[in-house]
Automatic annotation (TrEMBL):
Keyword Ion transport applies: no
Record-level GO cellular component terms: plasma membrane; side of membrane
Subcellular location: Cell membrane
Name this protein carries in UniProt: COBRA-like protein
Keyword Isomerase attached: no
Organism field: Cannabis sativa
Amino acid sequence: MQPLLLLFLLCPPLKHPHAGPAYSISRLLTCLLSSQLPSRPPCDPANSTPSAYDPLDPNGNVSIRWDVMSWTTDGYVASVTINNLQLFRHFMSPGWTLGWTWAKKEIIWSMLGAQATEQGDCSKFKIAIPHSCKRNPSVVDLLPDAPFNQQFTNCCKGGVLASWGQDPTAAVAAFQISVGLSGRSNKTVKLPKNFTLLGPGPGYTCGPAKFVPSSHFLSADGRRKAQALMTWNVTCTYSKFLASKNPSCCVSFSSFYSTKIVPCPACACGCQSNNTCIMSNSTLLQKPGINTPRKDNTPLLQCTKHMCPVRVHWHLKLNYESYWRVKIAITNFNFRRNYSQWTLVVQHPNLNNVTQVFSFNYKSLLPYQAINDTGMFYGMKFFNDYLMEAGPYGNVQSEMLLQKDKSEFTLKQGWGFPRRVYFNGEECMLPPPDQYPFLPNSACLYSFGILKVAASALLILRWIW
Ligand SMILES: *[C@@H]1O[C@H](CO)[C@@H](O)[C@H](O)[C@H]1NC(C)=O
Ligand SMILES: *[C@@H]1O[C@H](CO)[C@@H](O)[C@H](O)[C@H]1NC(C)=O
Ligand SMILES: *[C@@H]1O[C@H](CO)[C@@H](O)[C@H](O)[C@H]1NC(C)=O
Ligand SMILES: *[C@@H]1O[C@H](CO)[C@@H](O)[C@H](O)[C@H]1NC(C)=O
Ligand SMILES: *[C@@H]1O[C@H](CO)[C@@H](O)[C@H](O)[C@H]1NC(C)=O
Ligand SMILES: *[C@@H]1O[C@H](CO)[C@@H](O)[C@H](O)[C@H]1NC(C)=O
Ligand SMILES: *[C@@H]1O[C@H](CO)[C@@H](O)[C@H](O)[C@H]1NC(C)=O
Ligand SMILES: *[C@@H]1O[C@H](CO)[C@@H](O)[C@H](O)[C@H]1NC(C)=O
Ligand SMILES: CC(=O)N[C@H]1CO[C@H](CO)[C@@H](O)[C@@H]1O
């Protein structure tokens, strides 16, 4: 008995529709037995790569490169380039914030294309006043209307960066920094430490800066190659566990063969703001300024059972001879946020045969080169790439036609529903698999019953022990 139970615990068939009843069983068992399991070693935050691993974008990272371009009287001028190499996670407004701790007593004389948020204590300087004297500066992008003489290539997007999968040319940011009191040779320059990246919320962990071979730059005519004096790289990875305790979106299902709509799980997003939410018909919504975003981005949610700012609905719409059709709708329940350049990532085994997507852009993602079951949807420019605040316009939708592989396609056991869904890079909570719409008179209802009995038997045995 013990090995069987352990098997359940060690391989919980989480979030897999085929695993319907087993899911709830394993959760029950986990609860019952957790006190008897050897506890896991605590996570070491300095070594957090495993928790940063995202199965749909296993190599996703943000790479930050410092190229020292010239020496000055007491330091250097570097151009800093941030590359968002994540397939589907972008930096939305109000954008990225990059921080670090200087290794010595460095200061920032000036910057182009970005600015330090605080000047800090520069009282030691009498004649020329530095841009920032903080030991741990935080740097943000400039806004698009920044004066021309403060701009730098790829700067001034208000910190907004597209994801690599959506638009590689818009996934890069850069600024120039003039550093003082660092020494002016590659022996005296010490690498900044403790890099941090906000995007705009928490979630990123940055590794240490490492020297890499100096970057090369081609001149505009392509006939001369210049070289940085020194180059170092920092790699940051995202972890949803650091970002927030609760999901920020949820998924609901429906299908043509069942009248049942499977709603988002209740309190899918934690229900923390359930005493500040407002009803969709509330007269408060007429108040001017109700939609104005707050500095700290606190949401103002429409009251729902799930209390998520975003819901993704997947409707199995039609079943043709050799095709099937799905309708996807994304609804915003936050009165204080417009999502620009939103992305939706879906994992489903039939995404290898997407025939047509009607009013979203679609791009297939191949996290594991051989398995083509993941794809990204995003809005069409000037049409639906902007998901408006909650209310009558706060939704976008599309339909998708998929070609059937007849050996695999089935309406049974929730096969037609996605395995994973991400909105803007955040994983959305799916309904528990045992609530998926079942085919009427389907055999799985019966097997579900059997499994339930088996489960209770297991539980009873466990109790008797
Ligand atoms: C960062 O991402 C890129 C693109 O996916 C990948 O080639 C590279 O190996 C990653 N770097 C690290 C340190 O994971
Ligand atoms: C350093 O970062 C840049 C992107 O900013 C990347 O293209 C390059 O491959 C990285 N180098 C190493 C050695 O990781
Ligand atoms: C510093 O420069 C010298 C030669 O100029 C070179 O040999 C050495 O590798 C450089 N060190 C670093 C850390 O770049
Ligand atoms: C970097 O962060 C670690 C842990 O947060 C801390 O122990 C260390 O002192 C920091 N280093 C510097 C130079 O601030
Ligand atoms: C709000 O959420 C708490 C749990 O966080 C729950 O106990 C309470 O009943 C909820 N209130 C409403 C009105 O839903
Ligand atoms: C809003 O709708 C709810 C039910 O959906 C109703 O009970 C309530 O009276 C309505 N409030 C207003 C101000 O219309
Ligand atoms: C969303 O965008 C519309 C139109 O651009 C604007 O009127 C509205 O104030 C914005 N809402 C928020 C919450 O920023
Ligand atoms: C993956 O699926 C997409 C969508 O059907 C298709 O366009 C693409 O060619 C497939 N790629 C591979 C490598 O099979
Ligand atoms: C029915 C059909 O077209 N199936 C194809 C789905 O896509 C895979 C490769 O992605 C093909 O091998 C199948 O033939």
